[in-house]
């Protein structure tokens, strides 16, 4: 654990501040890419940067004509982000590829840039066209599911689809003292009913979530009945059917912003078998957040994703984000085993 | 109606803008007081200004040693306010006192300043100590009750008591995608339930109203579960018992900011009889808004209040505020009759 932990610390401290501060496009993200390039070269990998700045280090296989097998994650962070988000997937990838050593297929460690603002690094890589045949991303869960199941690791089944909408409620502003209750058309009362409906609708659909994250009241004065409320709904579900049901229940119309992506059944099976080999429960779960893995999967790469348990209730995008050393060690072990099999078949 | 209507127009246009703009402390309010002073002098009344700038015009009675009888209202307005709010009670008072003529008691027309920000003019007059024995304020209802009852005029029973509080809901901010519905502690869901509870509690108490006028969500991002919500509750009821019940139902504790004030039974009876004399339904209703009449009543003045029907659903504090010429004429008639009786007894 020494080297990996030290590297996580180095990356965590690069941008200063209260947490990880490797904001996409900033100096700390650039220095993180340089640092990772050095570690890859020290490990004997051939390092390449694409036009967007994504870093790929390759360990040439005995049959380099076969499609490559990559692992990795992203190096940027949100402001004051967590220690493990993205960074863990990169430093663990280096350990795992070194542990596998020379295989039939060429192994690659990839460090994507600019994931947090919408997977721009992996989208650029897909647009550039130089892609592996298989990809495994190791990432912290950023949620409480594995912690609640007492499971160190989980295999991701799909990256959820999502839709974001603004909904406006029009009522009639009025005097809070002189308008009787039965003469009111209070936009906030209508909005409150909708907030509860959003929760009920998501609860009724397995694996779905929906959130009203913003809500603004007009005119917003203590003694004026609200005349208008604008709120946002963020609706997500593991597949298009369920997302469609959720949107219908919320009167949001049929448009899906980001389509759900199923991950590759073969890679998933390999990951599950690795968890079983380690004596761990082979938990499968969808990812509620977007990931570079989803971009590669949508581009036709046979993709799998391994989640590591987040502690502290799954808190993420915060310095409170925490994953134990023991779970990290298990994750590196499982990733190594999976890569070995994926690179030799 | 000619003179009264012309005077309302003059006052309405004083401050320019889209509605009444006689903001307390501003030039237009000062000019309104000067204009009213001129009208009072033209009518032969003795005009006096107190230290705060409130105007009183007196028509000396045959028994000036008796406590005086005043009528009037306020001359300031909210920004872009209505044509009738306050101003009607002043210009109608001039008409009514002229119509009564010399009576036993000295009659006074009062024009208070600075009512909209919290009855500061009448509070200053009460502090100054020069008060009448009886007071009748004519004012537009600023609500829909009389319009819904098809009644031109109404007698006010009480000025409601009110309490304003901020309520904070603490939850746990979290990722809108990775936190399952049953692992959430969403502050906005709790706040939405409270908004509906506020409505239900007020509906269950006759004459009570309660309003959540402001609501702010933190952090307020489309993809983050709300971690904290701050909202305001404005709760009002016609008497202390009912306001206490309302506060208890809303877990707001026992504190009352503004105590409810009962208006004088004798003055109310006189006003009711005037409505009957005019063949009108003798509707009685509480006032949900604060008024100078409430300040004088709380100071021990025998106070009554006559509401004139607001059209357009009772809209107020807006250029859309409307009261018909016919209703204004009935109000002046009722006020004249009431003053005559109150000044001769």
How would you characterize the overall build of this protein?
- Two copies of one chain form a homodimer.
- The first copy, chain A, is an alpha/beta fold.
- The first copy, chain A, has two domains: 243 residues, Zn peptidases (Aminopeptidase), CATH 3.40.630; 89 residues, Alpha-Beta Plaits, CATH 3.30.70.360.
- Chain A is built from ten helices and 15 strands.
- In chain A, strands 1, 2, 3, 4, 5, 6, 13, 14 and 15 form a nine-stranded mixed β-sheet that branches. In chain A, strands 7, 9, 10 and 12 form a four-stranded antiparallel β-sheet that branches. In chain A, strands 8-11 form a two-stranded antiparallel sheet.
- In chain A, strand 1 and strand 2 form a beta hairpin.
- In chain A, helix 4 runs parallel beside helix 9 and helix 8 crosses helix 10.
- The model of chain A has no long low-confidence stretch (mean pLDDT 95).
- At the A-B interface, strand 8, helix 6, strand 9, strand 11 and strand 12 of A face strand 8, helix 6, strand 9, strand 11 and strand 12 of B.
Instruction: Give the C-level CATH assignment of the largest domain in chain A.
Output: Alpha Beta
What's the end-to-end separation of chain A, in Å? Answer: 29 Å
CATH superfamily of the largest domain in chain A: Zn peptidases
Question: What count of domains describes the coordinates of chain A?
Answer: 2
Largest interface (CB within 8 Å) is between: A-B, 59 and 59 residues
Biggest sheet details of chain A: 9 strands, mixed
Oligomeric state of the chains in view: homodimer
How many beta strands in the DSSP annotation of chain A? 15
